[in-house]
Write a structure and sequence with these properties.
By secondary structure, the protein is mostly helical. The chain has a domain of about 200 residues: Alpha Horseshoe (Serine Threonine Protein Phosphatase 5, Tetratricopeptide repeat), CATH 1.25.40.10. Helix content is about 55%, strand content about 5%. The longest helix has 20 residues. The chain is elongated, with a radius of gyration of 21 Å. The termini are far apart. About 45% of the residues are buried.
């Protein structure tokens, strides 16, 4: 995983800290789980970003208090080291370093929200919620609009603590706070709606996102799961087929269509498309070292391991039921216990 840079760079540039809006475009700074999701070239960032507790992203630009240059350099170093530790999953070290950053710059909502995010990943749900609520309050007290990612992650923490109504509200706030995060927050809303049993609103939200981006793979898999839970089995299978036949050319890790600078030969196009179609049947992507078909989108969801740490338990269980052609499915809840859900 690339070393996080955005936060440290912003700390050094105190006068322009609020202008560091490029954090979302630099999502190589997301936590370790992001690196586990195969991504096609030029793929929308929202298909890489993960949604719910266990894989929340680090936060970006918010204004720190004015400090001397040497203090700013020390704070930058703390942010960098804490980000690295968070990315490695070394949450004890991350918590120590984020706490030192919080103590070094009281009122710095970025440090507080990042500590909350790390605590959320570590399963310290209530501590995470307290930090993320404080980060939002610090922004409000300073006259700043709350950071969209802080709101989104606060929604994650609230949901994990069982407050799904509050989570849905925070996801809504995040969706309107920053257009770059709208799809992420709406996707979280869809998952939250389904967790609360509002299957109709969950499906409506997922489909609205798919109309904007037909290759939003998580939402396509969720739509199939919701439809299966509603006993709309043919519709669920149709959504699944759409997932398998991604616009990337039957789900390959690149499009079969000619890319800039490539030959537009119909023969070349047809040959590549055939390779990708064969991948669906054989699980082999010709000409690559990958022999398990794992770059076909529907294969990414061939078990629940891709979503277990990201989706709420009811959605994960619905996918489990769909994959096993059963009317019940199981998932690990936030308390670590296995739960079984029945869908009739």
């Amino acid at each position: 995983m690339a070393k996080p840079k955005a936060i440290a760079d912003c700390v050094l540039e105190l006068a322009a800290f609020d202008a560091c809006s490029a954090w979302l475009e630099s999502m190589q700074t997301v936590v370790n789980a992001v690196a586990t999701t195969p991504v096609a070239p030029k793929q929308s960032h929202r298909r890489r970003l993960l949604l719910l507790p266990g894989t929340c992203v680090l936060l970006g630009a918010v204004s720190p208090p004015r400090v001397r240059a040497d203090d700013a350099a020390a704070l930058s170093d703390l942010f960098s080291r804490a980000s690295d530790a968070t990315g490695r999953g070394d949450y004890d070290t991350a918590d120590e370093l984020w706490t030192r950053a919080v103590e070094a710059a009281p009122g710095n909502s970025a440090a507080v929200s990042n500590r909350g995010t790390a605590r959320l990943q570590a399963g310290r749900l209530r501590d995470a919620r307290e930090d993320l609520e404080l980060a939002v309050q610090l922004d409000a007290a300073a006259g700043r609009r709350p950071d969209a990612l802080a709101l989104n992650n606060l929604g994650n923490a609230m949901g994990a603590c069982g407050d799904w109504t509050g989570a849905i509200e925070k996801f809504q706030e995040a969706a309107v706070a920053d257009a770059r995060l709208t799809a992420i927050a709406r996707a979280n809303q869809a998952l939250a709606y389904f967790q609360t049993g509002d299957d109709v609103e969950a499906l409506r939200t997922a489909r609205a996102l798919l109309r904007r981006d037909s290759e939003f793979w998580d939402m396509r898999a969720l739509a199939a799961s919701i439809l299966w839970a509603q006993s709309e089995e043919s519709a669920a299978e149709s959504e699944w087929l759409q997932l398998c036949r991604s616009g990337r050319g039957f789900g390959a890790n690149r499009s079969a269509e000619p890319q800039p600078g490539e030959s537009t030969s119909q023969v070349a196009y047809s040959a590549r498309l055939l390779q990708q179609q064969l991948a669906l049947v054989t699980g082999v992507v010709a000409g690559t070292t990958r022999d398990n078909g794992s770059d076909t989108p529907c294969r990414l969801y061939s078990d629940t391991s891709r979503v277990q740490a990201r989706w709420p338990p009811r959605a994960t269980a619905a996918l489990d039921a769909f994959l096993r052609l059963k009317r019940e499915g199981s998932a690990i809840d936030y308390d670590g216990k296995l739960r079984t859900f029945t869908f009739t």
